[in-house]
Design brief:
14 helices; alpha+beta; eleven-stranded mixed beta sheet; four-stranded antiparallel beta sheet
Length: 499
């Protein structure tokens, strides 16, 4: 072990007492047969709920990763739509699809009916802000017989089945919407695990939902803790206080037993987003100066220690077709001299590498002539300010296929005038036209080509500077089987996860 790793290991040990015992199951007991009455799983997650478990925002993937919520469809290993609450579907016309629902039950004991599903989708279309999966999409859902659901879109939508796999379009029972405000998934979802208790933003207790349509989960429940400190998460795996810990810092990889370290490719990209609406980066020449100042190789080697690939675009190597189809950006502005221009750079510490990335970028920008103030917060305390344009630059990690599985989805939500997660606050007519063209393109290969043309238009504005394409690094106890290391980061615990 290197001196650097040894220091990190000793620092990690200092955090053990604060975590010891805090992941015990209720009552301090659990069965250990690993079967349908198996023991509870202790899971450490990086992000606490930011919106009171609303399915319409950042918490949507938190719910799907814990096996709470489900949509009409899911994504298979190849990124294609697969059955979930809908067992089959067919396209009736350019704008209309008919889905056949399977027999399923909500966690409150009521049946999953076409009218309940139609109501859930209709409510999602009216959410403010609109879920990213529905950015630029208008749809109408109505019941059709005892098991049928007809969904009609305002414009042709060739990827609607993939779109409906989004965690933000999870189907909840009518009870979820009884109170004003965001719907609650507590006891109203359809997944194999049901939320039974929430302790502020610090923890949640989930029990197995025995009437799940796919059969009973092996684990009897989940004790989830939201631990933003990545070293603490890794340390909890090392000491046996948790069974599964997600998003471990690369600095901790060398300190974990190889048997507990799990890696997988992911479609997540770490990028520098520049505020194009207000402040210094409203000037494309200063955006170009920022882009040329950043050297991602330093970040790949120094911060991520080789566990990532250099930033090539919005889509990385895990999107296997992207590199061969990538289009070179054109029309970029010439870089101006910063001459001490003051900017505020923000990031969050839930992903422990990001503050280190931000420090490297800060140094590189300052070397180029910018004056940089760095601000680091927990993500839940940062997101609203970032979306409101209160920072000049923002470093975040984003899964490019998370919202819909469709490559066009992230372009529409993150880089168009009406995008719901537009951290760069980009509003460019050429970009909107390119994204709109891609969104209307049918055929897998043709749609991919159009998506890459739109990516080139976005990169040409210098609103975003891709820094690195990441891997999943998780800590998993050797006693645990069936953890789902999903490249789309929608799943973590499933019916087959057990210890």
């Amino acid at each position: 072990m290197s001196i650097k790793s040894s220091v990190r290991f000793l620092a990690a040990l200092a955090l053990v007492p604060g975590l010891a015992g805090c992941f015990a199951s209720p009552g301090g007991e659990s069965s250990s047969d690993g079967g349908p009455s198996g023991s509870r799983l202790r899971v450490a997650l990086a992000f606490p709920p930011a919106e009171n478990f609303s399915p319409y925002g950042a918490d949507a993937t938190l719910l799907s990763r814990l096996g709470v919520t489900e949509g009409l469809t899911a994504l298979d290993a190849n990124g294609a739509a697969a059955p979930a609450l809908a067992e089959s579907w067919r396209r009736e016309s350019d704008r209309t699809w008919r889905f056949t629902l399977r027999e399923a039950t909500f966690q409150d004991g009521t049946d999953v009916t076409p009218s309940a599903v139609a109501d859930a989708l209709t409510r999602a279309t009216k959410a403010k802000p609109v879920p990213a999966a529905l950015a630029g999409v208008s749809l109408d859902a109505e019941a059709d017989g005892s098991r049928g659901l007809r969904v009609t879109t305002a414009a042709a939508d060739p990827v609607l089945p993939m779109r409906l796999s989004s965690p933000s379009l999870a189907i909840l029972s009518p009870k979820a919407y009884e109170k004003k405000g965001a719907p609650t998934p507590v006891g109203t979802a359809t997944g194999p695990f049901e939320i039974t208790e929430v302790n502020s933003s610090g923890s949640a207790t989930l029990d197995r939902f025995d009437d799940h349509w796919g059969g009973r989960a092996h684990a009897s429940g989940i004790d989830a803790r939201f631990v933003k400190d990545g070293t603490a998460r890794a340390n909890a795996v090392r000491t046996g206080d948790v069974d599964i810990a997600e998003a471990l810092p690369v600095a901790q990889a060398a300190t974990l037993d190889k048997a507990t370290l799990k890696e997988a490719g992911t479609t997540r990209t770490t990028s520098l987003q520049l505020n194009t609406r207000s402040g210094p980066f409203n000037d494309p020449k200063l955006r170009a100066a920022a882009r040329t100042a950043v050297d991602s190789s330093v970040i790949v080697k120094g911060v991520f220690e080789g566990y990532v690939d250099p930033g090539a675009g919005i889509y990385g190597p895990a999107v296997t077709w992207a590199d061969s189809k990538r289009v070179k950006p054109t029309g970029r502005a010439a870089a101006a001299r910063p001459d001490g221009t003051r900017i505020t750079l923000a990031t969050y510490d839930n992903r422990p590498e990001l503050p280190e990335v931000a420090q490297v970028v800060q140094q590189q920008l300052e070397k180029a002539g910018f004056t940089v103030k760095l601000e680091v917060r927990e993500y839940s305390r940062l997101e609203s300010d970032a979306l409101a344009g209160k920072f000049d630059a923002f470093i975040g990690a984003r899964n490019s296929l998370l919202d819909t599985g469709d490559p066009v989805g992230i372009l529409a939500s993150d880089y168009t005038c009406d995008g719901g997660y537009n951290l760069a606050l980009l509003c460019d007519k050429d970009v909107d036209r390119a994204v709109e063209k891609a969104d209307g393109t049918d055929g897998t290969g043709e749609r991919q080509d159009a998506a890459m043309a739109a990516e080139a238009a976005i990169l040409g504005t210098d609103a975003v500077v891709p820094l690195a394409h990441q891997q999943i690094i998780a800590g998993v106890s050797t006693k645990v089987r069936g953890v789902v290391l999903d490249p789309y980061e929608r799943a973590l615990v499933g019916t087959g996860t057990r210890r």
